[in-house]
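To start, one record:
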Amino acid sequence: MGRKTVPVRFVILTAVPATDATGYLSLLSAMARLGREPQMLDRLNEAGDAEELLHLLGSVKLRAGSTARA
């Protein structure tokens, strides 16, 4: 009752090896940080195709000195 609803803009599916807990947590934390970047979320939302989307996601920092591999 009285709650403000916000439409879902993104659903992200991730896949990491079962033995890579560190990689999974790093990816999860990067996605959480991404949610706090309105400009990047707008760019992702406006991506024209899958290639552009993967390129943008590939620029997300996972850990110091590394980026996501698309």
User: Anything to note?
Assistant: The beta strands are 61-63, 66-67. The chain has a mean pLDDT of 84. The radius of gyration is 14 Å.
